[in-house]
Amino acid sequence: MAKSPLILAALAKDAVRHLDFVQVKSLNAGADGAFDTALLTAVTGEHYVVRIANTQSAGTEQEVELQALRALGAEGRAALPFKITSLIGETKDDKGARALIFDFVYGSPVDVGSISGDSDLARNIGLAIAAIHKLPLAVVENAHLPEFQPEDILRARTAELDRFAATGKVPPILLSRWEGVLEDSSLFRFQPTVVHGALNGDTVLEEDGRNVAGVLAWSSLKISDPAEDLAWILGSENDPFADAVLAAYGANRPGVDPSIRQRAVLYSEYERARWLMHGVNKGDQSIIDDAVDMLNTLAQDVEAGVIGRLTAAPIAAFVAEPIIEEVSETFIAFESDDEFEVIEITEELSASGVEDSVSLETAPIDVISEDAELDEIAQEDLTEERSSYVDDKTRPIELPEKSDNELF
């Protein structure tokens, strides 16, 4: 059973006693309920996130993300033109589960279908991805995070293709198309880089339609194929946007291999088949049917020539001029018109006995119950097939107007 927002607020107060909170809003997401999450508003107006894992796999993922955040350190963060979260405190509930408190990363999800090719945001997304890929390999190596070489990736993608084919539900034209790429080893001659591993429209946050404000979900940080972080761009079906992102990216990584775009397209097409595998593994016919429809549409586009071949001559290296952007330090909190219930609480907030009751010292705390619908992110583990998707991390939400009430 999910923990109430007030229980999460009590745990947060126990973890960071120097902070006083006036408002709490549930951020629980996804049907699996892997995490209980809430947004807290401090008396200063700043926002924080409290999160507690409900399953063993979610707990493991959370530990890996903490390892990645520590690995980035001050030097790595300074090299990135956007905000990433920091752990500011932790405690345990009455069952010994860890409750972690992070500072909140402001921003809005990126809608790749609506971004124009000549926009600042398209260029800045390219710069942001390039900055991740330019991080020193030692960031990952010293933290003992996963490392994959081209031959590892090629072998894993081939094994994955065999699993797709075994379902009997992937159109033959797609299996042949993907097999052709994997048989062309020249397309997999690249220099592995630091890779985020879970970039998409929900984990990349923008502000003002111009800058990349933040990046979430660092549990897949690794050394791997840089094309993995570009797959969501090439799968956007927004060619002017994709071209602009890749131009900015290539201009700021002049040594990038010329076949990166083809591999990124391959990985983006693989996502449809991974969705199929997810449905098969769960035995969910609705997911299977949805994935089959997407695969059939893709097959029709390939057959009609709407989508170009992946085994053609490598695309020429990018030639755009380097772009230097001044990074904005201002992040935006979004207001909401949602109604919420104000609960009068008169006793001191503590982590003891929070499963039965929760209290604040004097002033009321605004409690907003809201389940934020999050997209599940399919991430392939190159060493082991994952049988199910997991919930996203804390997704940016629309923040309610701060009450004039004061707490403590």
The overall average pLDDT, rounded, is: 82
Q: How many beta strands in the DSSP annotation?
A: 12
Radius of gyration: 22 Å
The class by helix and strand makeup works out as alpha+beta
CATH architecture name of the largest domain: Alpha-Beta Complex
Order the strands across the largest sheet as they lie in space.
Answer: 4-5-3-2-1-12-11
* The CATH C-level class name of the largest domain: Alpha Beta
Shape: globular
In CATH terms, what is the fold-level topology of the largest domain? Aminoglycoside 3'-phosphotransferase, Chain: A, domain 2
Largest sheet: 7 strands, mixed
Q: What's the end-to-end separation, in Å? A: 30 Å
Helix content: 25-40%
Strand content: 5-15%
Unreliable spans: 313-363, 369-408
Order of helices and strands: HEEEHEEEHHHHEEEEHHHHEE
Number of helices: 10
Q: What's the CATH H-level superfamily name of the largest domain?
A: Aminoglycoside phosphotransferase (APH), C-terminal lobe
Overall tally of structural domains = 2
